[in-house]
Design goal:
Structural class: alpha+beta
Order of helices and strands: HHEHHEHHHEHEH
CATH superfamily: NADH Oxidase
Radius of gyration: 19 Å
Number of strands: 4
Helix content: 40-55%
Length: about 210
């Protein structure tokens, strides 16, 4: 199973080769992998920023514990969850679904009302946490796709989300920086690539009932 081989190959890259860039074609494939990610109700309550600008990334590095991956990687993916999901967002999803599948919106109105009711039961904080959780599913697709393409990546929570929101103007867009992933190619100087993976034994991790 090649997927397992790819997962054994990948690791959270600590040092990137700053002069080696991911091709535009591979970036498009990574975008498509994220786009195809599953999400609750299919709503995809997030947006993904792809940052190449070095001056902007230097500013972000300062609020990312000064971690070199932020500036040295080829591209920086910033996953941003929506602060909350409005009824208009659900209406937009229903319209998209109808157009994509050649259906009348009326046929989907019950599903739309159901989503509005279920999400309406959540507090603003619960909606925020729910949408934030969805970004991690999308991030997993990015990591898996990167490994298949021989591209290195490093999922990172070590940053000041509030400062990211300020620098990137996310609050005005109803967004929040959830998790970031630099992608590129590992440096030969990164000793982490030679370390054995540390994972719980299968018999400890899984339990049948």
């Amino acid at each position: 199973m090649e997927f397992i081989n790819h997962q054994n190959w990948r690791y959270a890259t600590k040092k990137f080769e700053s002069n080696k860039k991911v091709s535009p074609g591979d970036i498009e494939l990574l975008k498509e992998a994220i786009q195809l990610s599953v999400s609750s109700y299919g709503l995809q309550p997030y947006k993904v920023l792809i940052i190449e600008d070095q001056s902007l990334r230097k500013e972000l590095r300062e609020v990312s514990w000064n971690q070199s991956q932020i500036t040295d990687a080829s591209h920086l993916f910033v996953f941003c969850n929506e602060d909350q999901v409005d009824p208009q967002d659900i209406d937009g999803f229903i319209k998209l679904t109808a157009n994509t599948r050649g259906l009348d919106k009326v046929q989907l109105s019950g599903y739309g009302d159901f989503m509005k009711a279920k999400l309406g039961e959540k507090s603003k904080k619960e909606q925020f946490n729910w949408s934030k959780n969805q970004t991690y599913i999308a991030m997993a697709n990015l990591l898996a796709a990167s490994a298949e393409l021989g591209i290195d990546a490093c999922p990172m929570e070590g940053f000041e989300a509030g400062k990211y929101n300020q620098i990137l103007g996310l609050h005005q867009k109803g967004l929040n920086a959830s998790v970031v992933v630099p992608v590129g190619y590992r440096s030969r100087e990164d000793a982490s690539q030679h370390m054995a993976k540390v994972r719980k034994p299968v018999e400890q991790l899984f339990e049948y009932s």
